[in-house]
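Allow me, if you will, to draw on your knowledge of protein folds for a short while. I have a record of one protein: its chain in single-letter code and its fold written as discrete structure tokens. I remain grateful for any guidance, and I place the record below:
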Amino acid sequence: MKSIIRKKTVLHSHVFLILPSIFLFCLFSCSEENFFRETFANTKYYPELAEEEMIRERTDNKIPFTLNYQGLTGSPVCKFNVNGIEMITVLDTGASNNTFYESGLKKLNLQKDIHSLVTEETMDFYKKKFPQKIENKTDLEIYELTKQAFLDGIFIINEDAFDLGKTNLNYFTNQEFDILLGQSFFRKYKTVTFDFINNYLLLDTILMTEGSQLPLIINNQNLCYINVSYNNKSELGLIDTGNYTFIPRLGFGKSEINFDEYLNKHFYSYEEIKEKPTRILRFEGIKIGDIETGEIKGYYSNSIQGRGMNNGARLSCMYLSNYGCELFRNHVIQFDYVNNLLYIK
């Protein structure tokens, strides 16, 4: 694929607090993580097939992805060519912005410049945003607090440096991928299609005419939500391809809730979660438009299994469900960003 980032050396940066996607990181060894993913996704993964699946026939607008990538099984991962450099890329509709991780920054030789920006800009933001947390603390203590806040969700954004839309830069270590593409990238196109039958990402293709059509509900972070039906109740949730499974809100399909109260609410990573043991939840007959699912497994975000997310994301999922790839497996979904519609067949 041709380069998707302009070569540009000057970075104009400011700090932004973002509610991250429900993008799940490995908590255990890869074999243990795959076991959990296979359990909650109700399927078997084959990491040895990932490389072959990512190098299938492609064009600029038709990009093969794999659901078998080690450590991220169940979520779409592909290869993008960035400034002539191959990047392992996560396709995450549950993220507002794009994110370069440490390995990607190293490949682009940006990590030295970014480190200095993180220290100065993020500390300045932290002092202004959380003055109560830095009271009577030395500069060294503030720096240590800031480093943790940076890992928890305060990112440096370089709006002008990349031809991707808003892009975050972060220093998560020990990741086997380089970049995450979120809604700021996908919204550059009129339509974005995830073909979970053939495992292809399709950009700016013709509108789907078959299947069901649902309104997209867009929040103030440009994230896309839809209403599904379960137990004759309408349930609002985030469409999140960065999540391999289903994370229902507490009381999904049972209790009433005012979804509008939480759609644009910010949840912060420093807020505490009262954890409960993990239970495998089972749901049969969730309807996405006219499409009815079979048995879908999932877990609550306030369970131990939810530790793969930061606490801000976990709190959000307690009130608004997260519809990960498990709900769309063996289907094709298309985002129509012109008319704010989702098609599924």
